């Protein structure tokens, strides 16, 4: 076991840096040490582990299979150390300073803005900048600490925590259903006025399925198409037709009876992929204390399941 004393956090950090840069000289320049020092550290590690970690030539270095395996575990160890050190530094700190939040317009109005007063009461040293837009925002370039985003997460350069899952309902007003009847199957929607959201990608399709069968798409139309969800929701409440929207948007109208859920024996969606409501932040291993405070606050207030689902 004495051989393993040659391996410490510093040597692991240098080894990972060599893997990332593919060069002793570049790491030496960044660390302000000599390339021979780095080479000696790697050799001592190889002697301790009794295996070759790197292939060396005059221009570059590359990992052996053993080197790749060690690199994988070394990154995990260093990441855990960094998180532990940050946690120790922040355990007695109170969240404070400016936290810049970006959220979709309607979701921000419905489910972020109403909680800001209580958030700032909980953390009096916190200042909140809330920007609401449905446009794509890159937090790495738009000076944003936290994004609230709804949909399918695909960007691996970002970290996220799930605040809730997006569930859809097909709904209409009691007056519309009394006048036009209640559809018994998705196919019958062709005889109804369907109020469809139309965004930059075109008019949404509605997908229906029973149990775990395949989704079946329907392209439907009615007296109104719009790119504004609030407009379509109000039109449905006013009796103009049926809508498919997430429960976070029409939950209140369903609870107070202004809208009635239809075809409850079917699952409905506007996408083939499951969609989440996520708190997204740049890939910094662990969010800052102020960002964690906001995320934890929202998770507590939204609940599981989210209050708009109950």
UniProtKB/TrEMBL annotation:
Pfam families: HTH_1, LysR_substrate. InterPro entries: LysR-type_TF_proteobact-type, LysR_HTH_N, LysR_subst-bd, WH-like_DNA-bd_sf, WH_DNA-bd_sf. Keywords: DNA-binding, Transcription, Transcription regulation. Coiled coil: none annotated. It comes from the Bacteria. Residues 7-64 form the HTH lysR-type domain. Belongs to the LysR transcriptional regulatory family. This is LysR family transcriptional regulator. It comes from Hafnia psychrotolerans. The lineage of its organism: Bacteria, Pseudomonadati, Pseudomonadota, Gammaproteobacteria, Enterobacterales.
């Amino acid at each position: 076991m004495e051989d393993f004393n040659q391996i410490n956090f510093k040597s692991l950090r240098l080894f990972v840096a060599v893997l990332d840069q593919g060069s002793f000289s570049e790491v030496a320049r960044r660390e302000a040490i000599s390339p021979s020092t780095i080479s000696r550290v790697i050799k001592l590690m190889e002697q301790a582990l009794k295996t070759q970690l790197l292939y060396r030539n005059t221009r570059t270095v590359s990992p052996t299979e053993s080197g790749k395996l060690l690199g994988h575990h070394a990154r995990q160890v260093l990441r855990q150390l960094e998180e532990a050190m940050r946690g120790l530094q922040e355990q007695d700190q109170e969240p404070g300073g400016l936290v810049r939040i970006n959220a979709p317009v309607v979701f921000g109005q419905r489910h972020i803005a109403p909680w800001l007063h209580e958030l700032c009461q909980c953390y009096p040293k916190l200042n909140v900048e809330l920007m609401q837009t449905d446009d794509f925002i890159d937090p790495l370039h738009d000076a944003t600490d936290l994004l609230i985003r709804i949909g399918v997460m695909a960007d691996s350069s970002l970290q996220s925590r799930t605040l809730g899952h997006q569930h859809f309902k097909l709904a209409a007003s009691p007056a519309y259903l009394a006048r036009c009847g209640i559809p018994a199957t998705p196919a019958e929607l062709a005889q109804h006025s369907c109020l469809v959201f139309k965004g930059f990608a075109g008019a949404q399709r509605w997908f229906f399925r029973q149990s775990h069968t395949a989704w079946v798409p329907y392209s439907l139309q009615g007296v109104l198409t719009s790119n504004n969800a609030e407009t379509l929701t109000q039109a449905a409440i006013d009796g103009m037709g049926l809508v498919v929207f997430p429960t976070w948007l029409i939950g209140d109208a369903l609870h107070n009876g202004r809208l009635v859920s239809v075809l409850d024996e079917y699952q409905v969606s506007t996408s083939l992929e499951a969609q989440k409501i996520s708190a997204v932040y740049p890939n910094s291993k662990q969010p800052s204390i102020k960002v964690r405070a906001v995320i934890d606050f929202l998770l507590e207030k939204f609940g599981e399941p989210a209050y708009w689902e109950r």
